[in-house]
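To the team - calcium ion complex, inputs and output below.
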Amino acid sequence: MRHLLPAVLLLAACPEPKPPCDAHEDCLSTEFCVEQDFCLSVFDRTYDVAVVNATVASLSPTLGPWDPEDETGPDILALYGSTAENGDICVTSTLMDTTEGTWDESCELTLVAGESFAIELYDEDVDDQFTFLGGWIWEDDASIVNLVRQLGEVQRIESPPYSAEFRFDPPR
Ligand SMILES: [Ca+2]
Ligand SMILES: [Ca+2]
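Output:
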Protein backbone atom coordinates (compact mmCIF):
# COMPACT_ATOMS: atom_id res chain seq x y z
CA MET A 1 0.00 0.00 0.00
CA ARG A 2 2.84 2.32 0.78
CA HIS A 3 3.91 2.51 -2.87
CA LEU A 4 0.47 3.19 -4.37
CA LEU A 5 0.27 6.91 -3.70
CA PRO A 6 3.17 8.06 -5.94
CA ALA A 7 1.79 6.01 -8.87
CA VAL A 8 -1.64 7.63 -8.54
CA LEU A 9 -0.10 11.08 -8.43
CA LEU A 10 1.88 10.32 -11.59
CA LEU A 11 -1.26 9.23 -13.48
CA ALA A 12 -3.09 12.37 -12.47
CA ALA A 13 -0.32 14.50 -13.93
CA CYS A 14 -0.70 13.00 -17.44
CA PRO A 15 -2.93 14.93 -19.88
CA GLU A 16 -6.40 13.45 -20.13
CA PRO A 17 -6.74 11.48 -23.41
CA LYS A 18 -9.57 12.44 -25.82
CA PRO A 19 -12.42 9.96 -25.42
CA PRO A 20 -12.26 7.32 -28.17
CA CYS A 21 -15.21 6.82 -30.54
CA ASP A 22 -16.40 4.63 -33.40
CA ALA A 23 -19.50 6.74 -34.18
CA HIS A 24 -20.78 10.25 -33.42
CA GLU A 25 -23.18 8.75 -30.90
CA ASP A 26 -20.20 7.71 -28.78
CA CYS A 27 -19.39 11.42 -28.25
CA LEU A 28 -21.09 14.13 -26.21
CA SER A 29 -24.12 15.81 -27.82
CA THR A 30 -21.98 18.84 -28.79
CA GLU A 31 -19.14 16.75 -30.27
CA PHE A 32 -18.41 14.84 -33.44
CA CYS A 33 -16.32 11.71 -33.95
CA VAL A 34 -13.23 12.29 -36.10
CA GLU A 35 -12.16 9.39 -38.32
CA GLN A 36 -13.77 6.85 -35.98
CA ASP A 37 -11.04 7.73 -33.55
CA PHE A 38 -11.61 10.63 -31.15
CA CYS A 39 -14.30 13.16 -30.19
CA LEU A 40 -13.98 16.89 -30.86
CA SER A 41 -16.27 19.74 -29.88
CA VAL A 42 -18.32 21.07 -32.84
CA PHE A 43 -18.24 24.66 -31.57
CA ASP A 44 -15.45 27.25 -31.41
CA ARG A 45 -13.94 25.51 -34.43
CA THR A 46 -13.40 26.78 -37.99
CA TYR A 47 -14.71 24.81 -40.98
CA ASP A 48 -14.36 25.19 -44.70
CA VAL A 49 -17.98 25.59 -45.83
CA ALA A 50 -19.29 25.63 -49.40
CA VAL A 51 -22.69 26.17 -50.95
CA VAL A 52 -22.18 23.86 -53.90
CA ASN A 53 -25.24 24.74 -55.94
CA ALA A 54 -28.70 26.28 -55.77
CA THR A 55 -31.94 26.35 -57.72
CA VAL A 56 -34.52 29.13 -57.72
CA ALA A 57 -37.96 29.55 -59.32
CA SER A 58 -38.31 30.13 -63.05
CA LEU A 59 -40.41 33.20 -62.29
CA SER A 60 -39.53 36.08 -59.96
CA PRO A 61 -41.29 36.54 -56.57
CA THR A 62 -43.73 38.91 -58.35
CA LEU A 63 -44.38 36.06 -60.85
CA GLY A 64 -43.05 38.19 -63.69
CA PRO A 65 -39.74 38.02 -65.55
CA TRP A 66 -36.64 38.24 -63.36
CA ASP A 67 -35.00 41.22 -64.98
CA PRO A 68 -37.75 43.06 -66.90
CA GLU A 69 -35.30 45.61 -68.29
CA ASP A 70 -33.31 43.10 -70.30
CA GLU A 71 -35.54 40.03 -69.96
CA THR A 72 -32.70 37.92 -68.58
CA GLY A 73 -32.87 35.32 -65.82
CA PRO A 74 -32.04 35.87 -62.14
CA ASP A 75 -28.52 36.61 -60.93
CA ILE A 76 -28.17 34.31 -57.97
CA LEU A 77 -25.88 34.27 -54.98
CA ALA A 78 -25.94 32.58 -51.61
CA LEU A 79 -25.24 34.19 -48.26
CA TYR A 80 -24.57 31.72 -45.46
CA GLY A 81 -23.26 31.58 -41.93
CA SER A 82 -24.23 32.85 -38.51
CA THR A 83 -27.36 34.96 -38.06
CA ALA A 84 -25.89 36.57 -34.93
CA GLU A 85 -24.77 40.17 -34.97
CA ASN A 86 -21.04 40.13 -35.83
CA GLY A 87 -21.29 36.40 -36.54
CA ASP A 88 -19.24 34.79 -39.31
CA ILE A 89 -20.80 35.21 -42.79
CA CYS A 90 -19.83 33.97 -46.25
CA VAL A 91 -21.11 35.19 -49.63
CA THR A 92 -20.72 33.35 -52.93
CA SER A 93 -19.97 35.03 -56.22
CA THR A 94 -22.98 35.94 -58.39
CA LEU A 95 -24.08 33.61 -61.18
CA MET A 96 -25.65 35.72 -63.93
CA ASP A 97 -28.88 34.96 -65.79
CA THR A 98 -29.65 31.50 -64.49
CA THR A 99 -32.20 29.78 -62.24
CA GLU A 100 -29.71 27.05 -61.37
CA GLY A 101 -26.04 27.36 -60.63
CA THR A 102 -22.95 25.68 -59.29
CA TRP A 103 -20.14 27.29 -57.32
CA ASP A 104 -16.60 25.98 -57.07
CA GLU A 105 -15.61 28.01 -54.04
CA SER A 106 -15.67 27.79 -50.26
CA CYS A 107 -15.21 29.97 -47.24
CA GLU A 108 -14.07 29.59 -43.63
CA LEU A 109 -16.71 29.79 -40.91
CA THR A 110 -16.29 29.49 -37.16
CA LEU A 111 -19.30 27.91 -35.46
CA VAL A 112 -20.24 29.32 -32.07
CA ALA A 113 -22.67 27.61 -29.68
CA GLY A 114 -25.98 29.44 -29.38
CA GLU A 115 -25.73 31.07 -32.84
CA SER A 116 -28.08 29.97 -35.63
CA PHE A 117 -26.77 28.92 -39.05
CA ALA A 118 -28.60 30.04 -42.20
CA ILE A 119 -28.36 29.73 -45.98
CA GLU A 120 -30.14 32.49 -47.93
CA LEU A 121 -30.52 32.85 -51.70
CA TYR A 122 -30.67 36.29 -53.36
CA ASP A 123 -31.12 37.79 -56.79
CA GLU A 124 -28.64 40.56 -57.43
CA ASP A 125 -29.99 43.57 -59.27
CA VAL A 126 -28.57 46.79 -60.63
CA ASP A 127 -27.26 49.37 -58.13
CA ASP A 128 -26.19 46.62 -55.71
CA GLN A 129 -29.77 45.84 -54.77
CA PHE A 130 -30.49 42.32 -53.57
CA THR A 131 -33.86 40.56 -53.52
CA PHE A 132 -34.25 37.79 -50.94
CA LEU A 133 -35.62 34.68 -52.63
CA GLY A 134 -35.64 31.90 -50.08
CA GLY A 135 -33.57 30.25 -47.42
CA TRP A 136 -33.19 27.92 -44.50
CA ILE A 137 -32.19 28.28 -40.88
CA TRP A 138 -30.82 25.82 -38.32
CA GLU A 139 -31.64 27.41 -35.00
CA ASP A 140 -30.58 25.09 -32.23
CA ASP A 141 -27.15 23.69 -31.41
CA ALA A 142 -28.34 20.10 -31.92
CA SER A 143 -29.31 20.72 -35.57
CA ILE A 144 -25.96 22.41 -36.24
CA VAL A 145 -24.11 19.52 -34.60
CA ASN A 146 -25.99 17.26 -37.02
CA LEU A 147 -24.72 19.29 -40.00
CA VAL A 148 -21.12 18.94 -38.82
CA ARG A 149 -21.55 15.25 -38.19
CA GLN A 150 -22.02 14.90 -41.98
CA LEU A 151 -18.58 16.43 -42.48
CA GLY A 152 -17.26 16.13 -46.05
CA GLU A 153 -20.63 15.00 -47.47
CA VAL A 154 -22.78 17.07 -49.79
CA GLN A 155 -26.03 17.82 -47.97
CA ARG A 156 -29.19 18.89 -49.74
CA ILE A 157 -32.08 21.02 -48.54
CA GLU A 158 -35.12 22.08 -50.50
CA SER A 159 -38.35 24.02 -50.17
CA PRO A 160 -39.69 24.00 -53.72
CA PRO A 161 -39.01 25.88 -55.90
CA TYR A 162 -35.80 26.58 -53.97
CA SER A 163 -33.04 24.12 -53.22
CA ALA A 164 -29.40 24.18 -52.20
CA GLU A 165 -26.56 21.74 -51.75
CA PHE A 166 -23.77 22.51 -49.31
CA ARG A 167 -20.83 20.89 -47.60
CA PHE A 168 -18.92 21.31 -44.34
CA ASP A 169 -15.31 20.24 -44.74
CA PRO A 170 -12.95 19.44 -41.86
CA PRO A 171 -11.46 22.22 -39.74
CA ARG A 172 -8.26 23.67 -41.16
CA1 LIG B 1 -30.21 38.91 -65.01
CA1 LIG C 1 -31.34 40.31 -61.20
